[in-house]
Each structure stands twice: as C-alpha cells, then as structure tokens.
Amino acid sequence: MPNPHTADHQDQYRTPNASRAVAVTDADLPLHCPMPGSALWSSHPRVYLPIEDMAPGQDGLRHASCPYCGTEYAYKAG
What we know:
single chain, mainly beta, elongated
C-alpha cells in the first residue's frame, strides 16, 4: 500500500540532476553524463563526452554539453 504522506514536505526533497553547470577536474575524466552521484533511475543512458579533446574557449576552459539533458561541463586542463 502506498504511503499517503509521500507528497508531504516537498521542501525536503531535491530535484534529481538539477545542476545544469558542472565544473570538471582531472579526477572526473573520462567525463561521462550522468556523473557519479546523479539520480540514475531518472536519467538518460551514460554518454561519454570527449571534453579533454575540445579546444579551450576564451575563458581558458574546455566546454562540452550533454546531448541528452543539456548539462554544460567546463574543464580546465592540468
């Protein structure tokens, strides 16, 4: 039987994968989305993003975005 109080206290729950801008470090390579710690049950299939092969932008960071969810990743080599 479902819990009748499931919807109570919505302010205590986080929206899964709500972060749409993620800073990436060397420890996160090879980069994939969703990343560890994401709510995988409500996400998309894992996709690897070759962020280390991207050319640095004007801000000095390498950028990649997930084709499934649009999460933007920024990586500074080194």
